[in-house]
Predict the structure.
Amino acid sequence: MFRYLRFYITPIAGLAISLGLFYGGMWVWMPAFIYVAGAAVLDQFLKKDLNDEPYGIEFLMDLALYLSLPTAILMFLSLFWAAGSGTQDPLALGIFMQSITGHDVFSARDSTAWYHYVLMFISLILPATGIGGLAGHELTHRTGKPFDLWLGRITMALNWGIAFPIEHVYGHHSYVGTTKDPATAARGDSVYQHLPKAMYRTIVNAWEIETKRLDKIDSSILSWNNVLLRMAVISTSTTFLAYYCAGLTGVAFHLLVCFSTKFALEVLNYVEHYGLIREPDQPVQPRHSWNCNHIVSTVFTYNLTRHSHHHADAQAPYQDLKAYPDQPEMPNGLASCLLTSLIPGVWRKIITPKLVEWDAMYAAKSEYDLIAEANNQSHWPELQGNITKSIAK
């Protein structure tokens, strides 16, 4: 049964984070910090998850995802309440929490020092991404299930994640490994060079994809048929709710979390696809993604780290994804890779041997010219001539 229950860690963490926001002080950031630190540390000590045994109770796997929307709503309502001050309590959440806990939540909120909120925003980046982005990601891939699809889109829209569900499903999975893919970082690009380009191109690609779809059904881009506009209504409504709850401070809290989750999703894509090469007219294969079978990373991302299988079959439910231990692996667990990618010098040191290995062991001969060009454009001396050596072998 633990194989099922472990995928409920993220919604449980979301509940703990929401409760902590009412207790003030260090509790506004401590539950989220424990979630992040636990993921990063435990991944180094626990065995990799190579178990491909099928899950028999599909409903329990789906429920873990379905809880993402109520968890995200609860987290944002708690966040908006924490952004308030004095007797601000327009939704009576503070009165309710005080009645069931006996804790003076209003005094706790007013006495919380500013630096606790700084630590809160830093600690919330990954949990908020897991609750809204990663569960939403899985649900938006279920294009054949309208309920799941829209649940995922609504969950992501709460974070102003409007373009991602469209571009990722209908663009990224077609473009991965090519220069048209916003998520595939060029060799030599630091995360800070890559992210502005990725964010801009995600929006552009999403509008191109949705415009073409609307043209096919003979519908205007300004009509209610436009998925991007419908999601924008949800995002805007959430920001207005933040204003209603706590004024401009509430809006600032909301937008900071939205930006940080967008940042985290793009960094996630950065480490999952860094420097990999594919010919645009060739099918996507498992080798065109960095895989990761560290068990904590797998659980916290709803098996997304089994990325080789995910890109080989984008419609496969997360519980059906296989470990593919023979495919190219990330340098470390996902949380560790995310953190090290923020230090370009360290990331270069650990990813370069992986790129050299991928060129020699996984690349197709037809990709050699593209690889040689990418290596030259990287301006990394350690990659220069690398593909020539691979050919010689």
Summary: The chain has a mean pLDDT of 93. The chain has one domain: 2-392. The first helix runs from residue 2 to 5.
